[in-house]
């Protein structure tokens, strides 16, 4: 799509164009862009009745986002479209003219809806005609960002961009002047949307790989090596017992599916109780629950315990289902610790990791190693147990040596021993 020629833009469209430019500079949200663009364009004399704007994104769960606006109701649709395999696409999308445009690299389409031929090429046109709409016009804009198809061979639509459709109920449909004006304004909308998407894309991708709080800090400028701060935190360190042995006997595809299934038991439990997953460590993970200065550690530590209990319960249900299906099962071991850590950037000058470091993290990993020898899925340090208080019902499991510490450390736990169904060991 070429840059629109605004030399002969009518006076009524200039304020819309200037607003779009300023909105792109001001980082206006996609919702506001779509809503205000439609209302401003309608006021400028372009007879819009229904508008759809869809934009691709990079998110582990969401392939694209779509917004639907109608003249009498404003923004009525704000939809996240998940990643799907072609066979799983909804019928409405498989038969959509917008999908046809994306799949066939068609930058523009128009369909008159009045006095139609007996059969439309796409079912949605008959639906629109039945609603009294008279004309449909759509454009697709590529942002110049493309997936490497050598890596993403299953992605049908290589370009990341915006697609939009505009429908009118005007008896004679869109005039040639209306379409000329839309062709000038919609690329400016795409440019403003690109600015908004870039901001959201940066946050989504960074959060997916670093965690929500770490992403916020990095995007706020905490990007220099050595930039870190001391924080008080509760640490959850988890590991799948038996994964190494399982990896030696299972093909890579089912192995990855197995690992993700167990991580799905951990991640939601951690996040729902106020924590963030900072790092995946092969078949384990490190999560933190930060305490603000002066904050009472008791409620936070009890939330961490609740997260651990929820994750272990989810693993128990998963193992029952996997055993019934004849699939291998694994035991989840969790260690909880509390103490001071350094939170920030570590790495080389050009390749950094935003994470937790310090003795507290190392001790949490060594506590987790006690789970197998003590026959427990959950081990808690003395500092964590003291902060959690008497309510959770933690009991001492005695004093045990931890590598790197001169004196044996008292550890705590509760609950049953590990399930006998955990067939594999390191």
Tell me what the structure shows.
- The chain folds into two domains: 14-210, 2-Layer Sandwich (Beta-Lactamase), CATH 3.30.450; 224-413, 2-Layer Sandwich (Alpha-Beta Plaits).
- The model is unreliable at 148-158 and 416-426 (pLDDT under 50).
- 35% of the residues are buried.
- The chain has 13 helices and 14 strands.
- Helix 10 crosses helix 13.
- The chain is of the alpha+beta class.
- The strands form two sheets. Strands 7, 8, 9, 10, 11, 12, 13 and 14 form an eight-stranded mixed beta sheet that branches.
- A hairpin with a 5-residue loop joins strand 1 (50-56) and strand 2.
What topology does this entry show?
Layout: H1 14-26, H2 30-43, E1 50-56, E2 62-70, E3 74-82, H3 91-94, H4 97-103, E4 108-112, H5 123-130, E5 135-146, E6 159-168, H6 176-210, H7 212-219, E7 228-241, H8 243-247, H9 252-272, E8 276-281, E9 284-291, H10 297-324, E10 331-347, E11 352-357, H11 359-368, H12 370-374, E12 378-381, H13 382-388, E13 395-400, E14 409-413
Parallel strand pairs: 10-12
Antiparallel strand pairs: 1-2, 1-6, 2-3, 4-5, 5-6, 7-9, 7-10, 8-9, 10-11, 12-14, 13-14
Helix pairs in contact: 1-6, 2-6, 6-7, 9-10, 10-13
How many structural domains? 2
Query: Which descriptor suits the 3D outline?
Result: elongated
Distance between the termini: 57 Å
Share of helical residues? 25-40%
Order of helices and strands: HHEEEHHEHEEHHEHHEEHEEHHEHEE
Category from helices, strands and their pairing: alpha+beta
Let me know the average pLDDT: 86
Summarize the main sheet: 8 strands, mixed
- Regarding CATH, which class of the largest domain? Alpha Beta
> Measured on Cα atoms, how large is the radius of gyration?
28 Å
Count the E strands.
14
CATH architecture of the largest domain: 2-Layer Sandwich
CATH superfamily caption of the largest domain: GAF domain
Q: How much beta, percentage-wise?
A: 25-35%
Give me the number of helical elements: 13
Q: Which blocks of ≥5 consecutive residues have pLDDT under 50? A: 148-158, 416-426
CATH topology of the largest domain: Beta-Lactamase
